[in-house]
Amino acid sequence: MTVTTTGTVSVVIINFRGTDDTLECVARLNEVDWPARQLEIVVVENGSGDDSATRLRAALGDQANVKLVVSDENLGFTGGSNLGARTATGEFVAFLNNDAKPDPQWIREGLAAFAASPRIGAVASKVLDWDGTAIDFVEAGLTWFGMGYKNHTTEPDDGRFDREKDILFGTGSALFVRRALFLEIGGFDEDLFMFYDDVDLGWRLNLYGYRVRFAPNSIVYHKHHGSMKSFGEYREMYLLERNALHMLYKNLDDASLGTILPAALALLARRAVAKGELDSESYDLRRFTGAPDEHEPTTPVSKDTVAGLFAVDQFVADLPKLRQSRAEVQSRRVKTDKEVFRLFGNIFHPLFGNDYYLEGFTAIQDAFQVNRPMMRKRVLIITGDALGEKMAGPGMRAWKIAEALSEHNDVRLVTWNVANRASDQFEVHRVRLQDERAMKVHEEWADVIFFQGFALRHFLTLQASNKIMVVDLYDPMHLEQLEQGREMGDAAWRNQVLVTTEVVNEQLQRGDFFLCASERQRLFWIGQLAAVGRVNPDTYAQDENLKSLIAIAPFGMDSTPPQHTRKAIRGVVPGIGEDDKVVIWGGGIYNWFDTPTLVEAVAKVAERHDDIRLFFLGVAHPNPDVPEMAIVAKTREISEKLGLTNKHVFFNEQWVALDDRQNYLLEADAGVSTHFAHVETTFSFRTRILDYMWANLPIVTTEGDSFGDLVAAEGMGVSVPERDVDALADALEAMLYDEAAIAEARAQVARVRADFTWEKALAPLIEFAHDPYPAPDRANAAVERERTGGGVVIPQIGKSREQRFHEIANSRHGLRRDVMLARHYLTDGGVQELAGKVRNRVSTMRASKYGR
Fold first, then answer.
1. What is the pLDDT of residues 148-183, one digit of tens each?
2. Beta-carbon neighbour count of residue 585 at 10 Å?
3. Burial per residue of 508-536, b for 16 or more beta-carbon CB atoms within 10 angstroms, e otherwise
């Protein structure tokens, strides 16, 4: 049994009558920037039938890191590569063509890509021509009829393809694979012999739930000898045609196979006739002329045509064995065809330009409805939050929803805020407010539109759209404004709540499907839906429980446990030592949180335990539209007054990056969240608690909201009454210093958190997106609006000057709003005030990073 050497890479090179290239390749490998003790070179002499084995032994026999494996027969690329992998001992196996030279960073950059996820099963290198100027491989493609292709070959390597991404397959000329995984799934399919073996490997890895990652900084330079010409190009065509059928039969699910395989066979026949430039109507009885050659038993036919016929015949001959291979692939697969089709690239690429062929290509696609198995819904997700390295709750939720839906759908994530984070799973765009033309492009593209916040109010395009709409109600923002707007003054506060309530009602009247965060929220929202007429005979007849109208899809957490990658708090933040007891406040500080009581409780614990440290994770919000709230200053003031700041209480002034927050969480001993008991907290869903669960922290929280009740019921920590300093201090002390209580809380957190992964949390949305439908009462929406006068009737009362201003200021941005504001300033303050406002607007736009 071969022993695996951890951290070692074994590079497999296949030699078939190319000894000079092989020796040069080995020499280049020994020059790469990688420790020699962690590099094993396995050269497979693949039955060349000449003096190759002798020459290789003579040249390589003294190299300690080289293994020479000699096969008596030509096993093809597939068999030779598998033989080399079985002989190798490395944790990773790399396949490198013998006519290639690796860049010095080839191995280091290739293996670095595996670190991103244990689900990355293979890493594909960038392959350039021998001079390093033109592209050989940067992007994989596979057609519906089973033929793989490479995009952008011979184009200049100008930096367009320098971003890591998931792909369907990498080229076998420069490919890294986890060796244990490679052997476990059977390696390359040896029945293919050569051609499309790398396509098949990548396809199976993806079906089995692994990822193939393109690493653009792992570079190989390739000569390309065109060796198949010496054997006859028709032999290559035979293998390509046969292997394409093999892959389709093995890897497609039953539904896709039933549609695609007969279409592929029909297209193969048309391609064979077109390549041989034959006239398939020549045997039609209506074309009989009685000429002497009509009775000849043979006719001259191109070998390209016969190659296709022989490929089909061999496919038939291989069916008994293929049935076994198919059974194995289908039994192991965890991904649907639709999930994998998104990696195929241009799946409808014809690959051949003959007019006769293209005519048949179109006819076959239409007749067999080839696009049906791979049809993916187009989902547009709209948020108003910033999308970047640092994201708050709504932005993070929108991002995770985009990730989840992109498995089965084509997804675009759009924000009118900052957008400087990219994804290789979905598109990310920024559409500025008032840019209806840009939003129209996305709206027309979409089948389903999912949105948060004020999106419907901001864009007329969305208001006029007849697309299916999903409304995210996880954040009851009108209740939030009861607290957030309190400090604005009476008139502004009332107007803020009024405007936000109008926006919510517009959403409730328009949506086809709604998401909320908890059962408590769902009951609340059903009441509001009833108030705007959406709980009616149509929606009730479809589903008496209304689950097809509004479902629970809470905030979630990653199913992969967090990994500590750097020091973040202990020994880094002045005043917090390695042995201190750290309780973390995992988010921003807003008016509905009771941080003053928390600070007072920490002061009380500090009297008995000098090593307690409270760390506020974020003060400055990543969304520039969210101002610092009054509670922040109040919390600082109390901390200063009690002499706690930078001794027992620490404020992290910057928001922590999304991909870095786990480092802070994992250095904490407990997580805390305290709030006031009022209507906003009753219906809120504290997403920071999920971060504590993700990091398996004991939790201290105020009772009365969904998570407060859950923590108490499940024993994940301690829930305390609001504003009770003594009870909060006792809870903190228990979760920081009582080892038995801490162990019990951690055990319960570990048990409960499995129910809150993103996969489970978003299941209702994923199911809806699979088969979206308009709400049953939408068909009668026009009649209903006419009858009810637009839904909820809000009493009209006399408005003060300040109320009128805030109503205009909170209206939809655009020319009409600007004119109304100008009129208001002119009427109430005269020309001088209007001129001052104009100067301020111009100055602000010039100074704003995002105002242009």
1. 999 999 999 999 999 999 999 999 999 999 999 999
2. 25
3. bbbbbbbbbbbebbbebbbebbeebbbbe
413-427, 713-727, 826-840: least confidently modelled range:
826-840
Amino acid at 375: M
- Rounded CA-CA distance 608/732 in Å is 12
d(CA 585, CA 583): 7
Mind giving me the DSSP string for 616-657?
E--SS-SSTTSPPPHHHHHHHHHHHHTT-BTTTEEE--SPPP
> Tokens 């429980």 identify what position?
545
CATH assignment at residue 113: 3.90.550.10
Ramachandran category for residue 789: left, alpha or beta (phi over 0 → left; psi -120 to 50 → alpha): left
**What is the maximal distance between C-alpha atoms in the chain?**
114
- Rounded CA-CA distance 338/98 in Å is 36
43 shares its domain with 180: yes
What Rg value do the Cα atoms of the chain yield, rounded? 33
Question: How long, in residues, is the chain?
Answer: 852
Considering the domain architecture, whether residues 31 and 174 belong to the same structural domain is answered as: yes
Closest Cα to residue 34, out of 97, 135, 101, 104? 104
pLDDT tier for residue 10 given thresholds of 50, 70 and 90? very high
On whether both 391 and 521 belong to a single domain, the answer is yes
3-class state of residue 794 by DSSP: coil
DSSP 373-429: TT---EEEEEESS-BSSS--HHHHHHHHHHHHHTTTSEEEEEESS-B----SSSEEE
What would the mean pLDDT of 2-22 be, rounded to a whole number? 86
In this structure, how many other beta carbons lie within 10 angstroms of the beta carbon of residue 321? Answer: 11
At position 698, the amino acid (one-letter code) is: P
Same domain, yes or no: 729 and 814 = no
Nearest to 122 by CA among 247, 214, 219: 214
Could you tell me if residue 660 is inside a domain? yes
**Is pLDDT at 806 greater than 70 in this prediction?**
no
Token pair belonging to 221: 């330079």
C-alpha dist (Å) from residue 789 to 466, 501, 512, 588:
20, 17, 20, 41
DSSP state of 113: G
128-148 mean pLDDT: 95
pTM of the model: 0.64
- Please, where are the H alpha helices in 425-581? 436-445, 455-458, 460-464, 477-484, 490-510, 519-531, 537-542
**CATH code for the domain in which residue 703 is found:** 3.40.50.2000
Strands (E), 163-260: 165-167, 174-178, 211-222
Q: How far apart are the first and last CA of the chain?
A: 65
- Is the domain of 393 the same as that of 439? yes
Type of residue found at 138: V
| All residues at 6 or more sequence positions from 374 whose CB lies less than 8 Å from its CB, including other chains | 144, 256, 337, 338, 341, 344, 347
> How many domains does the structure of the chain reveal?
5
Average pLDDT over every residue of 449-466: 94
Give me the amino acid identity at 39.
L
385 with 247, same domain: the answer is no
Tell me the three-class secondary structure of 745-763, residue by residue: HHHHHHHHHHHHEHHHHCH
> Is there a domain that residue 90 lies in?
yes
Question: Do residue 594 and residue 735 come from a single domain?
Answer: yes
Residue 568 lies in a domain: no
DSSP 467-501: SEEEEE-SS-HHHHHHHHTGGG-HHHHHHHHHHHH
**168 and 152 within one domain:** yes
Range of the domain at 262: 233-282+300-368
pLDDT of residue 808: 65
The tally of CA atoms less than 13 A away on the side-chain side of residue 816 is 8
Residue 700 lies in a domain: yes
